[in-house]
Amino acid sequence: MKKFSDFNLTSPILNALKNLNLSEPTPIQLLSIPLAVEGRDLLGTAQTGTGKTFAFGIPLVNHLALNKESGALILTPTRELALQVLTALKSLTSKDNLLNAALLIGGDPIQKQLKQLKNARLVVGTPGRMKDHLKRKSLNLKHFDFLVLDETDRMLDMGFLEDIKAIIEKLPSHQTLLFSATLPKNISDLAQKFLNKPERINAGKENSPIVNITQEVRNISQKEKYDQLKIELLERTGSIVLFVKTKRSADKIALQLRKDKLNAEAIHGDLRQTKREKVLMKFRKNQFQILVATDVAARGLDIPLIEHVINYDIPQNPEDYIHRIGRTARAGAKGSALTFLTPADQKNWYLIEKLLNPNAEAPKRQTDSRRKKVKKSFKKFHKMTFKSGRKKTNKKNYTPAKS
Fold it and tell me: Is the same domain home to 73 and 91?
């Protein structure tokens, strides 16, 4: 088994990895680091929770340590992921390998970011805020020769394609590492245009959840969902992320759960950045059990001990299913994922199944004749029930028992 010491890394980085008790790379790190250290462009596919951040972070910090005039840029889809990435990369630095860094995200004061940008060699942020700084001319990319596009499929889903292109066009000649959990055509097109003969890295099967996740489905009516949710929550221990469709639902369900004596908090895009960070910090410290979230937390939420993910509402985008359930079973741990399916969800659920298994068959449409058949079977069941008693039932005088 290869170790980090087998790679051509600087001593400060090896010392930092040793302090983090990391000696052996994960599969994605094993594939990525040697090629990235050589200066190659990478097109990487890796499931969430596989150590992807260090797969690009270690070569990046190594590059900046060896090239004192260089700068590096990391683009992420969400504020949470940007903060998480910057925190991870700072753990690779030391007094001997200190990096001036800037975090450019929405919800943070501009003045604070302007101060950070002075002499910053590492800039991490979201495409929209980074483009704003380019317009202000507060971000100068003249010496930035290392680019990372993280969770690229999500950035494109969120409509950041034009912002990404505008940022890349401002960069000088540079090395690019593009990572994504899925690889739709628009990412292949982006890679073909902006990457230079990239090495294709694939750690695990594309579009498939981590094998350590036990997946379950509950077919249920919309009216039954909340009552069933309480049953499921009471049967589970450990941290739980509960995904819902809308911001309003997140607040409403978190409030109802608290009224029912269950410890829950909500997180969504309408919360101020400071509030979101406070909620996540409390969740990491196990100060409450259930985090009710919109898809703002589907990516970029790196909490190692999440044991369960519950899809109260299924995602509208099939790829988001993979990212949602990827919040559990991180770094080799085991986890479970439960999805509630109502009759109205069948079409979207088929698209998710098709993504996971391209050979999946479309669900048969329930025609009137099928409904009549179900109704007939239901009558037959009741007829058998009447005949099953020892004493004959007088149907005229029969009074159904109160439930």
Answer: yes
